[in-house]
Amino acid sequence: MKRLTLMLLMLLTVMVHAQKKKNGTIYSEHPAIDVVENLNKAFVAGDSDKVMSFLADDYKYWNGTNSNKDAKPGTKEGAGKNAKWWKENVSYLSLERTSGAYPDAIEYKDENQKDVVWVQTWNHLKGVHNSTGVKIDMPVHRLYVVNADNKIQTIIDYSDRTVWRELNESFVARKNGTIYNHHDYINSVRRMMAALENKDMEKFYSYYHDDARFRNIHMPVGTEAMTLEQDREGMQKMMEAYDITSIDVQGYPDYLNYGLGNAKVVQSWWKVRMTRKSDDKKIVMPLFLIHDFDDDGKIVGENAYYSASLMQN
Structure pTM? Predict the structure, then answer.
């Protein structure tokens, strides 16, 4: 049995080795890498002539995330115009290696690849579009094909196209839903806050969905939202320590029915007047609330903004 096991292990080892085939060499330092990084420096500097000097006459640029089979590649002339556009329209431009990453230059053994070197990079692109204020902050992965003359003949770009969509859509005014100053969702929030003022907690929580989630300005980023039961517990402790004497709306609430995602949001501003039971201290607390509603008119999410220090002093 041991002999059979040993033979099987030896056979498996041979099979594993037989599946490997070396098809070239990877370099962390290579003249082709220098060409690529010098191209990127010229791009950031907005030197269109220098950008074009690194490109072969038959240069082609491809969007690696575009599935359109009829898409046309970018050209050498287009690359020069592109560098000029970035210089004139984007501030704080940078294109740097992603932290911990470095370029690879690959010389393949394949006969049809013998005269070129492939360079792959992982960079981070940053900038701010001048007229729209759209922030560009995204990873970029690119494949470059460098020919025997050390000219770049191909770039295949993989990046976040949603940034460009947002930029293109920001040039013109665009509606994103409707704002109401009177709506039943606003009425729900007012009735809910009236219930809180009158300490009718059963009615207060009846406006929330059982799966509602609660957040406030004092919760660290990344903290899991509180459940309905957790909010009940926190509210109970607060009411044991403070007596709410009045809750008054400031200005008027807004109901925003967004076009994107059909989100239903009520924003409201309040002054909460309380008396601390331990020392009879009077407190006036400004409160800003954001409530997300579902299609049935139940609150499914709450964000609360207030100053906890007012209650502690």
Answer: 0.70
